[in-house]
């Protein structure tokens, strides 16, 4: 039940990030332009670390977190596929705003799926190794320091093209900021409710 609820939260975060990535926004203070969904990816990466706590061993924790990643992958593919079906369906009356706003979501999701295959799997592997060897804050920040640049580079290159790599520094800053301000508090808020038991490896 704990893993199912956490997986539902993770898939919701990932799909919301992909839809909102259609809008480019300006980062406060830094002033860099980034896709609006960027903030949520830092939270999603932190949420994966919670998946490790739903099992008593590193191996089982890795499997649970990998199942979450696979669910996010499937949910993202379903989102992209269905949006494309709707965009190309015969409209009852002209609705260009929908097609313009969400018609390019498939590229965003394609970039996200590729980023999933690399960054989130790397994040999960590092998180597994660090479990029990480092405090939660160090594990979340340490894994994200490696996975966030990978995620940003792969995602931007596919979703927006190589000419948009200027978005990458802003993406890294936004994801790390959201990791610290939202992801870490979420981990500390939920870890006690998700822990597999008093004898579980932390």
How would you sum up this structure in a few lines?
This protein has 202 residues and is mainly α. The chain contains seven helices and two strands.
Description:
The chain has 202 residues and is mainly α. It has one domain. The protein is 74% helix and 3% strand. The chain has seven helices and two strands. Strands 1-2 form a two-stranded antiparallel sheet. Helix 1 runs antiparallel to helix 2. It is globular, with a radius of gyration of 17 Å. It starts with a helix and ends in an 8-residue tail after the last helix. The model has no long low-confidence stretch (mean pLDDT 83).
Tally of distinct domains: 1
Q: What is the average of the pLDDT values?
A: 83
Q: Give the overall form.
A: globular
Helical proportion, percent range: over 70%
* Poorly predicted runs: none
β-strand percent reads under 5%
In the sheet with the most strands, the strands line up as 1-2
Helix-strand string = HEEHHHHHH
Q: How far apart lie the N and C ends?
A: 20 Å
Number of helical stretches of at least 4 residues: 7
